[in-house]
């Protein structure tokens, strides 16, 4: 088997690598998982295109058709046009290797290799809450969305949803009204707002969050795009809240995906016999979601208890007593906006899994690090 080739390509410009990454993404037969595998084995996207057919055929998952497409390299011109259009349209393009790519998504095997982002959104916001539900929202559902968003205000989370009719759009509008950051993950191109009646809300979100999609410019809101969209919502959030849902639909699909990603899912209970309470009640009954009757339920499960963080002066004193290895862990957390998943800490620190776990436990006992659900770790206080 061909061993992974980790060394970077010499004299490789950032622009060349970005074009190569997009060109690789555009190749027929190269999906998100295979693209990451190719880059991992070859060292960079540009290097993938420099490999011989013999070497490419040795990489697991690569067939003759994919090898031939890579060797032809016919997608470079289209890749350049897309990147130029993104710059002209003030759309950021984030590849999974970029620092600003959502760290939460990096833990997911089938996460998009590329994201198109518009607005002023921080994709690594400290707390991200997904709110989804039926497109046929009732007055009860809309009231619950407003109550949830209102109670989340002390935590200042990013509210994430899908810009769809019903619960989704009400979550976005309520977040805007309450001056919370909100972002929509689209099932279309960044330049195709669907449904079009939500274009004005989408425009407002550009100044208070933004729009996210993995789809190319001009992509229509085809049916197969929405399950894929749902996995991005599930992957980017710390917690997913289902407000109203029937027995079948996108909200339940998103909840299932979130569960498969080991995310915490909450569901608002509803009256028996009501169509759009059947899905949420089923999630609770089958232990696929925590019961959500108010913010205290979420704070208890997520440990978002609003306890005061360690004061900077106190933390500064403790830093003097930290070992060099502990300081490395603290710096990794600081570089990740104060919060990182365990595997990312292992990767960035260079320590083994066992050593990293031991250091995190030591730092938690010193009240310098807080453990969060989903094997996430958060820095307490401030490190300069």
Keywords:
Rossmann fold; 9-stranded mixed sheet; 384 residues; alpha/beta; DNA polymerase, domain 1; globular; 45% helix; disordered N terminus; 12 strands
What does this structure look like?
The protein has 384 residues and is of the alpha/beta class. It folds into three domains: 14-88, DNA polymerase, domain 1, CATH 1.10.150; 116-302, Rossmann fold (3-Layer(aba) Sandwich); 312-379, Orthogonal Bundle (Arc Repressor Mutant, subunit A). The chain contains 18 helices and twelve strands. The strands form two sheets. The protein has a nine-stranded mixed sheet with strand order 1-2-6-5-4-3-7-8-9, sandwiched between helices. The protein has a three-stranded antiparallel sheet with strand order 10-12-11. Helix 8 (139-152) packs parallel to helix 9 (167-177). The radius of gyration is 22 Å and the shape is globular. The relative contact order is 0.09.
């Amino acid at each position: 088997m061909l061993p992974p080739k980790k060394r970077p390509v010499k004299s490789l410009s950032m622009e060349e690598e970005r074009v190569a990454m997009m060109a690789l993404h555009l190749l027929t037969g190269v999906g998100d998982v295979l693209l990451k595998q190719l880059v991992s084995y070859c060292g960079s996207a540009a290097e993938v295109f420099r490999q011989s057919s013999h070497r490419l055929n040795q990489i697991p998952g690569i067939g003759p058709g994919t090898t031939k497409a890579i060797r032809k390299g016919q997608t470079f011109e289209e890749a350049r046009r897309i990147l130029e259009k993104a710059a002209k349209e003030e759309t950021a393009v984030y590849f999974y290797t970029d620092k600003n790519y959502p760290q939460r998504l990096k833990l997911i095997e089938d996460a998009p290799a590329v994201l198109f982002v518009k607005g002023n959104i921080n994709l690594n916001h400290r707390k991200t809450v997904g709110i989804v539900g039926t497109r046929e929202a009732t007055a009860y559902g809309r009231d619950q969305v407003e109550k949830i968003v209102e109670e989340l205000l002390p935590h200042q989370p990013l509210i994430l949803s899908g810009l769809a009719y019903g619960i989704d759009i009400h979550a976005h509008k309520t977040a805007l009204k309450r001056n919370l950051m909100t972002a929509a993950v689209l099932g279309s191109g960044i330049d195709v707002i669907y449904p079009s009646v939500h274009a004005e809300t989408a425009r407002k979100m550009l100044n208070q969050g933004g729009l996210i999609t993995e789809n190319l410019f001009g992509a229509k809101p085809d049916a197969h795009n929405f399950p894929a969209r749902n996995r991005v919502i599930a992957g980017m959030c710390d917690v997913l809240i289902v407000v109203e849902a029937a027995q079948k639909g996108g909200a339940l699909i998103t909840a299932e995906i979130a569960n498969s990603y080991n995310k915490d899912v909450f569901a608002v209970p509803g009256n028996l016999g009501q169509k759009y309470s059947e899905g949420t009640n089923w999630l609770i009954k089958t232990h696929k979601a925590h019961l959500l009757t108010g913010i205290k339920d979420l704070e208890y499960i997520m440990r978002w208890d609003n306890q005061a963080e360690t004061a900077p002066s106190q933390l500064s004193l403790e830093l003097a007593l930290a070992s060099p290895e502990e300081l490395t862990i603290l710096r990794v957390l600081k570089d990740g906006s104060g919060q990182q998943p365990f595997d990312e800490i292992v990767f960035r620190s260079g320590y083994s899994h066992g050593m990293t776990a031991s250091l995190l436990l030591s730092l938690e006992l010193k009240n310098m690090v807080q453990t969060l659900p989903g094997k996430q770790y958060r820095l307490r206080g401030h490190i300069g």
